[in-house]
Design brief:
It is a single chain. The protein is mainly α. The protein has one domain: Hypothetical protein af1432. The chain is 60% helix and 0% strand. It contains 10 helices and no strands. Helix 2 packs antiparallel against helix 3.
């Protein structure tokens, strides 16, 4: 979106939100840092135009969606919404906009998709697709192994089989090797895209991950 897509007041808020998120994510794990947020925002902008989603809500939700990822806060899923809500309130964002953004943050994660859907909007569809796309393809592979290293998990263990049918709590508590994460999440994302444009973008990234896994197993066996 161009600056003139927003009012002067909205532009001011977006500048403040961006500075806030950069500050909060300084020193964050490389797969969930400011650059992840920046990529999600850029993709969400593209999708929002195609899906006629509200640009302001989309931008705010994309910027704030990982301000306090629960996995880095002892599993506290309200930490992010609380921090985002307090900051939006300090910027005098309209209550209806603030609540819409917070509902997106609360409901958009993959683990929440393992339960019954309780909130949906065009803006959530866009931001969720953008976030999922960043978990796919070359960047998705890099992020998966970066986080696996951060958690000191093995790359692969043939004796530990992936589990594709998991509850939210089982998914949250998993400590499986990084390769398993492809089968437990990353390869499932293509079928979970909300938007037509998101599905089209996911196809190529999905295929790239499949090719990577084929090469990985060949090299694992010494071929």
């Amino acid at each position: 979106m161009k600056k003139n897509d927003f009012t002067e007041g909205q532009q001011r808020v977006l500048r403040q939100v961006e500075a806030f998120v950069k500050e909060q994510l300084a020193g964050a794990e490389g797969g969930h840092d400011w650059w992840h947020v920046a990529r999600v925002r850029n993709t969400a902008r593209t999708l929002a135009k195609l899906e006629a989603a509200d640009a302001y809500v989309t931008e705010l939700a994309a910027l704030l969606h990982d301000v306090a990822d629960a996995k880095f806060y002892g599993g506290d899923e309200e930490k992010g919404p609380q921090m985002a809500g307090a900051f939006l309130t300090s910027q005098q964002v309209a209550p209806e906009v603030r609540e819409h953004v917070l509902n997106i943050i609360r409901h958009m994660s993959f683990k929440n998709s393992l339960e019954k859907l309780s909130f949906y909007s065009a803006e959530m569809a866009v931001v969720q697709d953008a976030d999922r796309l960043d978990a796919m393809g070359a960047i998705g592979i890099a992020r998966a192994f970066n986080y696996g290293g951060y958690k000191n998990r093995p790359l692969y263990d043939p004796a530990v089989k992936p589990r594709q049918q998991m509850t939210k709590e089982e998914y949250k508590s998993s400590e499986a090797p990084t390769i398993n994460h492809f089968y437990e999440k990353l390869l499932l994302l293509k079928e979970k895209m909300n938007t037509a444009a998101g599905r089209a973008m996911a196809e190529q990234r999905h295929d790239f991950m499949v090719q990577f896994l084929e090469q990985f197993y060949k090299e694992w066996e010494g071929e």
